[in-house]
Design goal:
Distance between the termini: 38 Å
Number of domains: 2
Number of helices: 2
Oligomer: single chain
Radius of gyration: 21 Å
Bound molecules: zinc ion
Length: 157
């Protein structure tokens, strides 16, 4: 979906977009972020002298993969948008890449570590069992000093 700003010629003029939109899947650290549902966009655009200022919010659901247990889960987002597009940097006022802007704003608001829940237990380091589903009975305690370090790391993060 491209944004047409060519009809916002006068400084001070503005328009509001309230729409359900499709955002194509995109990538974060080579992980695919899926977008199974439509998003609700509420955006106000105002022409200031040298730029267009976009403010508003986008809400919806992303399908992500937990970095600890590797399960897919749905993650609700509500992202505030505040973006200034400098006129001199806009090549074509009739075709401003709104989707790209929205994707970028969504990415910036995702946590650095993507987890299905903050107390996700992850996978057993020995047998690979998803420990959120059941305990596998492996003796993971104090087997390998490297694992101990990893445990400390998880505690801190
Ligand atoms: Zn998880
Ligand atoms: Zn196990």
């Amino acid at each position: 979906m491209n944004l047409d700003l060519s009809n916002l010629k006068e400084p001070g003029s503005s328009k509001r977009i309230q729409e359900r939109i499709k955002i194509p899947a995109f990538e974060l650290h080579s992980q695919e972020i899926e977008t199974p549902y439509l998003f609700d966009l509420d955006l106000n655009i105002i022409n200031t002298n040298g730029s267009f200022v976009l403010t508003g919010q986008i809400t919806g659901v992303l399908s992500l993969i937990c970095s600890r247990c590797l399960e897919k889960f749905e993650h609700e987002i509500q992202v505030e948008i505040e973006e200034e597009l400098l006129k001199e940097e806009l090549e074509n006022l009739e075709r401003v890449d709104l989707i790209g802007i929205l994707q970028e704003n969504i990415l910036l608001n995702l946590p650095i570590k993507i987890l299905c829940s903050k107390d996700c237990k992850g996978l057993c380091t020995i047998c690979g069992q998803n420990l959120n589903e059941k305990e596998c009975g492996c003796e993971r305690e104090a087997i390998d000093p490297r694992l101990a370090i990893l445990k400390d790391f998880y505690k801190k993060s």
